[in-house]
Amino acid sequence: MTASDDSWMTAAAAVRALGVSRPTLYAYVSRGFVRSAPKPGVTRERLYSREDVERLRRRAEERRDPKSVAAHALDRGSPLLESAITLIDGGRLYYRGYDAVELSRTRSIAEVTSLLWARTFETIGTRHLAAASGRLRAPGDLPFLANAQAALALAATHDPLAFDLRPEAVATSGGKILGLMTCAATGRRSVANTIDEQLAAAWGVKRQGIDILRAALILCADHELNVSAFTARCVASAGASPYAVVIAGISALEGIHHGGVTVRVESMLESMRGARNGPAALADWLRQGLTISGFGHPLYRDGDPRAIELFALLGDRYPNSPELKFARAVAESATTMLNQPASLDFALATVVRVLALPPGSGLTLFAIGRTIGWIGHAIEQYATGQLIRPRARYVGESPRAARK
Prior knowledge:
Elements: E1 8-9, H1 11-18, H2 22-30, E2 36-38, E3 46-49, H3 50-64, H4 66-70, E4 86-89, E5 92-95, E6 98-99, H5 100-106, H6 109-118, H7 144-158, H8 167-186, H9 195-203, H10 207-219, H11 227-237, H12 242-253, H13 260-272, H14 278-287, H15 305-317, H16 322-338, H17 344-354, H18 361-384
Helix pairs in contact: 5-10, 6-18, 7-8, 7-12, 8-9, 8-18, 9-10, 10-15, 10-18, 11-12, 11-18, 12-18, 13-17, 14-16, 15-17, 16-17, 17-18
């Protein structure tokens, strides 16, 4: 194992950050609290996980003075919950220790679902897709996310096992939920094929595009404790059903600062398409006082690996696509201008244009894929039996004496 400078630190830096001795640091490593790795090119010196050291430092700080950390407890990068599902480290994304990009190339959606839900590639996760009949469908004229939420709410009331929160039962409900989500996206009454094949058939995607849909769904499956996953875990901690967990996750996902960014990028690319080239399109966009969306991610300084993989797939399967050529021109110009590479949101919007999917399909892929992660987080949270209940640091007026 090698260690990158950004993600790892020396023993001297680690003991300074923690305020402990070297023997104590080594004890943390032996007990599994801090990961260590050999320093590249040096046989006897080791480096220590910056993330693990920072987590221990914050815990010690909170024990000493809980109020001092309350204001920062919800900042990005300040872990609140322990999870064994997803790791973001060294600019890469891992599901249960497996590189997510590699999984998107080599595994099916069913296998990745099973990995996140049951720590195995045996396909238990989607065996109940076909049981998710569309007989409990909401009005078809609703937008996809609203239609999905309504269908899930209806299905929950008709599922006698909705509140069976044992892991295997939640996996069964999860398969039904994925089926209902797919039905809401396609307008079909049942899922006859795999999710990617069902979406491809409904959207008229040719054979070379199915792998791109599968990869997009897998790469969207989870991203640690983002706002929708945290929302899902909070709802699960209350003992709500998996249906309610996914309804809540969808509510967070469609926000304009989360999955809603994908919709903004789709709109941006559609508006720019009449321009001669990428730089001209961006110049016109900025001239209108509008913001360029879909670039930069604080967890990926050197580029979002999910976006990089989707662009590579598009280039391999649709090398002559004018839509891909234009999106790349916009991405190159925006990256130069903003000094930020394209994110997953921009890549999903590009998938929509290259594959000629219905408008808004980027968010549809995001939601169906992320449902896999929400169910995984629900299973993990149910197992703890703990209610997530942060405290607020009151900053209002002091209590006043009662009026006489």
